[in-house]
Amino acid sequence: RLTCAAIANLAENPSTHITLVRQCNALHHLIFLMRNKQPSVHREATRAVSNILSTQSFHENFMYEDGLRSLFIVSRSTDPECQYLAAMCFRKLTPVIANHDPIISK
To answer: How many CB atoms lie within 10 A of CB 56?
Structure first.
């Protein structure tokens, strides 16, 4: 949980996104952690993903890594913060028309 929170804090600065995604493969791991059974873990992982999705060039990576599957799992959480963070992810994905078909079909 604390590691995901630290990564989420780092990802608040868009200049870290390239390093996190391309060099550290963080998006892959965070998407997996969004499926964790512990709400505190998937909450912080979703917060980190939401921050990374602020950079549109990483939307394709998110889709490729089956991020929508994890996002739909988090969006069904009973935790209001998880629901909010899932909504933030959707809010960052939906302005890009190329994301519409994958979201609707999932």
So the answer is: 13
Question: CB-based contacts of 42: which residues, under 8 Å, 6+ apart?
Answer: 33, 34, 35, 36, 73, 74, 77, 82
**For the chain, what is the HEC assignment?**
CHHHHHHHHHCCCHHHHHHHHHHCCHHHHHHHHCCCCCHHHHHHHHHHHHHHCCCHHHHHHHHHCCHHHHHHHHHCCCCHHHHHHHHHHHHHHCCCHHHHHHHHHC
Q: How far apart are CA 87 and CA 18, in angstroms?
A: 23
Average pLDDT over the chain reads 94
pLDDT tens digits for 1-38?
A: 999 999 999 999 999 999 999 999 999 999 999 999 99
